[in-house]
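A protein record pairs a chain with a discrete description of its three-dimensional fold. The following entry can be read in just this way:
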Amino acid sequence: MRTRFAAVATALLVVGALFAAASPAQARAPWCTNADLKARYVYSDSGAGHVWGWIVLRNRSTHDCRTGGFGGLSYVGFGNGTQVGAAADRVGTSTVLLLRPGHRVRSLVQETRAANYSKATCRPHHVDGFRVYVPDSTKSQFIAHSTTGCLNASVHLLEHHAYARP
């Protein structure tokens, strides 16, 4: 019994030391705001009715800041930023990341093509681009990305993975 307790206690100390060693810089840095980060989309590949790319956030401020996890992502259109269809489904596990000035994090985005659905189900509509909310922000950024979305919000065309280092 004592041996098992000692092993668990040692494991907890090792894990605690690893987290303690990594966290002081992150603990001192403020959370990144929408003004700190610049979002852009980078196309990666396409096939089998899907398109893959990355939402990349670059720290354009002059200070370190923390970010990570998920932001918000949706298609917008109508020439005025109105959301088209369902917001992106979130995939993966969030991690807090320290982002130095000029450094980047990225989120894999998978788009399912609207043509994979019947017109009656999808109700296809032109999309002007993405509305991107950086993590923990209530302000958004627009990224031009012309495609076709579905007006039917029960059709989920977007997957947005947790932000991670490139």
